[in-house]
Design a protein that fits this description.
With 284 residues, this protein is α+β, with helices and mostly antiparallel strands. The protein folds into two domains: 113 residues, Elongation Factor Tu (Ef-tu), domain 3 (Beta Barrel), CATH 2.40.30; 163 residues, Threonyl-tRNA Synthetase, Chain A, domain 2 (2-Layer Sandwich). It is built from five helices and 16 strands. The protein has a six-stranded antiparallel barrel. Strands 10-11-16-15 form a four-stranded antiparallel β-sheet. A hairpin with a 2-residue loop joins strand 15 and strand 16. Helix 1 crosses helix 5. The longest helix is centred in the middle third of the chain and has 24 residues. The chain is elongated and about 60 Å long. The N and C termini lie far apart (43 Å).
Length: 284
Amino acid sequence: MQSTLVSFPDGALTGEGEVLLVDQAASVVILDATPFHPVDHTWPDQPGDAGVITSGDVRVRVTEAVMAAISDEGALAVGSDIPVKRGGEGWTWMVGHRTDGAIPADIAVGARVALEVDADRRASLSRGHTACHLASLALDAALADLWRKEIGADPLGNPDFEGKANQSSRIHADGSVDEYRLGKSLRKAGFDSEGFASSLAERQQRINEMLAGWVASGGESRIVVDGPSIIDRRSWRCTLPEGEVGFLCGGTHVRSLAEFESITVSLDLSDPQLLVMTTTAVAA
């Protein structure tokens, strides 16, 4: 058995696949190929795609695509029950399609089925994910002068606050919420937390001005893949006025910044130890 072949990096919303495994207890269908993007079990920032599996006249609703793995001994693990990181040896890596209720007999091992992703959900999550990455780059740029020591640089060459402080990221339809820990370790690394707190409104304005300029540029956004399977490495790339940027990223993204009317952030420092950045995207 080979790892699931995926077509979502190319923007596919439909496809066909052969049913490889049906687990009624977990309400999961596994196929050899799929256009569905699954939520990652180790960094679940972007929710999985939803949609429909069709076999003849039978339609089964997929509530969310998830990661699944089958051990060399034949044991199936799904989602958060997977005991190793994606790509770990001794496991075959698959996309599981969680269904709404019992799986009909027509969706059986060996059957060829059609798959269709909820296009509106995919588009809104893609906007949310691209906006999340752009907001993090703008945040790094807006905080660059607050560092007293050298740290690693982000793709634009600014001090990598995102990489140093981010503790969680949750993408939703047309936006995201990111949390950053502003504790003792960050201060020891050279970050001026007090200076940040005293200039919060100015920093937020600077981020939003930068995001407005990037949206207006209408640059290309794309996913670059190392191979066709779910465990092959994928990266997001985007053309900004400053040049091309990118991150390793397993999610989905817009094809162009022209798909946005706007991207804005709000910064919340109600807890001086925790920055919460809420990003909101508006579709063009």
